[in-house]
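Thread amino acids onto this structure.
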């Protein structure tokens, strides 16, 4: 899995409720939330496929519209690009 092993337990419940409240108040809403959610899931899926199948598999299995979004983030977001490169270097 990208980013290492999954933790078996999450954050403490109280902290989770505080974080949820902050995200609800300050996070994206409406159409912006929809865009954020779509981008997040496309990027997460790209990183997973990249980790499991490699760059060739990712480019062949992911739809073109999703790859356009991934390319935008690879071109503009240094932390996303670094994470993708780290996953590629494992192979």
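Threaded sequence (91 positions):
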């Amino acid at each position: 899995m990208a980013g290492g092993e999954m933790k078996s337990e999450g954050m403490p419940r109280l902290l989770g409720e505080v974080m949820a409240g902050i995200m609800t108040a300050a996070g994206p809403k409406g159409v912006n939330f929809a865009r954020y959610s779509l981008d997040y899931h496309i990027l997460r899926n790209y990183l997973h496929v990249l980790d499991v199948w490699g760059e060739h598999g990712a480019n062949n299995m992911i739809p073109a519209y999703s790859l356009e979004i991934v390319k935008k983030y690879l071109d503009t977001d240094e932390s996303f690009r670094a994470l993708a490169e780290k996953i590629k270097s494992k192979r």
